[in-house]
Amino acid sequence: MSKRGRQSARAEPAKPRGSAAWLCDAAMFDTLACRGYVSLAHNPEIAAGVDTIARLVGSMTIHLMRNTEDGDIRVRDELARKIDITPNRYTTRAGFVHWIVRTLYLEGNGNAVVYPNTRAGVIRDLNPIPPALASFIPDGWGYKVVISGRAYKPDKVLHFALNPDSLYPWRGTGYRVSLAAVADNLKQASATQKGFLESKWKPSLIVKVDGMIEEFSSPEGRRKLLESYAMSGEAGEPWLIPAEQFSVEQVKPLTLSDLALDAMVTLDKRTVAAVLGIPPFVLGVGDFNRDAWNNFVNTTIMPLARLIEQELTKKLLDAPDLFFRFNSWSLYSYSVTELVSAGSEMVDRMALRRNEWRGWLNLPPDPEMAELLALENYLPADRLGDQGKLVQGGEQSGA
Question: What DSSP element (H or E) covers 19?
Fold first, then answer.
């Protein structure tokens, strides 16, 4: 085949099937056309929801507990203080846990890695690893964690995984896919609102004039026309204009209510709240509800806390009777009346000391309230046998 023949046999580029155009100038197109990628961390609603979750988890104290035959007791030693107060020399427990939760939901896409720095078996620091420096490589049934090009076995690092992957259960997937479309909608709504409010093309009146008259054809002439006929000295003063030369029409500008932006944004906020498992009022939708808040603590905050405490227990503790536990007591919404009533019932049944009861109300302990009291005459537990009704004959038995 000749060279010319080969050139003629070459397929021509396919013609486009159709095209579309917007009747919009370049400046307005750049304002209203919401283009480009924006991370979930830059979306105000998603960032507010994640920050609420991270702040609540980070505010809970971490207790080192020991399992005994009589129940779980708290252990207070250097290890407990290290994890609960200074897990890292450059931050506190609140900031450290906040970073873990935020990374799980946003930058880490369901994964957060912490490298324990130990010396002679003693934990020196728990170092957070930026998500950009950590990756995961499948290795048979297991995997390896690569930090800055160096591979580590999973038991050598703390790997927190949120929303496990269906193919690799050890890897988290987060909620990026679920929230991506909602984030785009919220970004577009924000851009539309901004462009609408900044637009100057919102006249309330249109005055028709004869453009053939030389006096009205220039900007100076039209300005002189407005000064002569439209601008009155007092509010509410009527306009007196020539009927043959002018025609005035009132225009009702388009409002945000006409665009139904508020309803769409509210729906998207509720979707974000449902995906993150937070009450809608956290994002400004609806009013505060105590039952919804307590359910949020039970169904979202505590499962996330269990994820963190189990990874800490699995990787940092060797003793089978030791474990870490977050204290969620301060997160629930209680009223003072409920605390007083519940504490009174437990004190009457000798299930609680009065100083512990005072601790519920953030009151200091009282040395005179360290004993257990019984319901009958509120006697100390070691004097229950001294009650008069238990002695034969009552008070007359001594006569």
Answer: none
